[in-house]
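Worked problem 6 (solution included).
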Amino acid sequence: MTILSDKQYYQLMRAVFHSKSGFINVMPYGKNSFSVQVSIKNKLTVLGTFKTELEAAMFADKKRREMRGKDIVTNQSAGLLTGDYTVKNIKRLIDEYFNSSELDVTLRNAGTVFIEQLWADRHRQGRIIDIDKVLKTKIGSIHISDDDAKKILDDLIKFGLIKMVSNKFSPKLWVTKLDIKKELRNKPQETKENEMQQLEKLSPEMLENLAKQAAELAKVKKQEAEDKHNFRTLLSPLILNAVQAKGKYEKLLNELLDTSTELDNALNALKDALK
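Solution. The predicted structure is:
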């Protein structure tokens, strides 16, 4: 039975992420095939070849369990076979994020590195401060300030790739978790087209009813705006009067304080004269 430490798990996932297949123990073989390769007595051994990388990955999992026990990390247990967290999908999302983000290139690069780090973590969570060394290796000598860290995290949350776990201390120490939300990544044009398609499916009666509801809502919003304007018009003179009254009160208070000081001085002079 082989149980990897968090560090070993992270190193394995980083190797998988940058491999040509995106799977554990799977390598391209020739032009259109994939092989399962494992280390036996420190010697790399090919156990079989397959037409697709998915078939190879499933066979690799079977052999890994047979050779190293049921608790060994497999492609399936790491979420690499299907779903949102496959290497292929994560790389696609990273590309989408880089091309869609409005941050400058340096911060976008830092964001993509951070996503890779979160993905490779056993619990898929981490902090911006943890990627400093990786950033220097991949991007060069750069400094991510707390303001930069907050911009990156806010941007990744907005794009639907992470969620906040803890925001204690400074932004570089905030703990976030990889959490893919597909609905947040719809482009404005795609969203508009989807809405139009949904409307086209409605009957004329339902469309007419929606139009009436929209007209009523617009009327309510317009009335709210007018009421707000009227309230401000009514309130402004009252605020001005209060400010003026406060000023007069403060002036009077200062005069009283001056008078009190003069009386104290006179009283002290009388006491000195009686000594």
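Discussion: The domain at 6-78 is CATH 3.30.730.10 (GCC-box Binding Domain).
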